[in-house]
Design brief:
Blueprint (H helix, E strand, L loop, with lengths): L4 H47 L4 H11 L9 E5 L11 E10 L4 H7 L2 E10 L2
Antiparallel strand pairs: 1-2, 2-3
Helix pairs in contact: 1-2
């Protein structure tokens, strides 16, 4: 019988890119899921603070603390209506957070590119 060393190398060469793509895809999914959960939590923290009549810089600080596991410079924060004096009891306050995601997987990154995760939290002012 002939040696099958060459066959094993060819099979490995054919399967390895698929396994690497799968591994990087799982990593990317985990990163996106983590960022989504973090933005959701931070939006609730900010909306809760805004609902009890906190100043905007304190709300922004709470959101920055809650998003400390993300790149802080990339998190865009929007508070509507802005300013403590503009939020009357019984009205809604909306916290909008936007975070851009880049993929680690080269093939997926080329097809999809970068996209923004957006979280919008609405809470009634007390």
């Amino acid at each position: 019988m002939r040696s099958q060393k060459g066959q094993a190398i060819v099979e490995t060469a054919l399967i390895l890119p698929i396994l690497l793509l799968l591994l990087f895809g799982i990593t990317d999914f985990g990163r996106v899921f983590h960022a989504s959960l973090t933005l959701d939590h931070a939006g609730r923290e900010g909306a809760r603070a805004a609902a009890i009549g906190t100043e905007d810089h304190v709300i922004t600080g709470k959101i920055r603390d809650a998003t400390s596991s993300l790149k802080e410079d990339n998190v865009s924060i929007s508070i509507a209506p802005a300013g403590k004096g503009n939020r009357e009891s019984g009205t809604d306050v909306t916290i909008t957070l936007v975070y851009p995601i880049d993929f680690l997987t080269p093939i997926i990154g080329q097809f999809i590119g970068s996209f923004n995760l957006e979280n919008k939290t609405v809470m009634r002012v007390e």
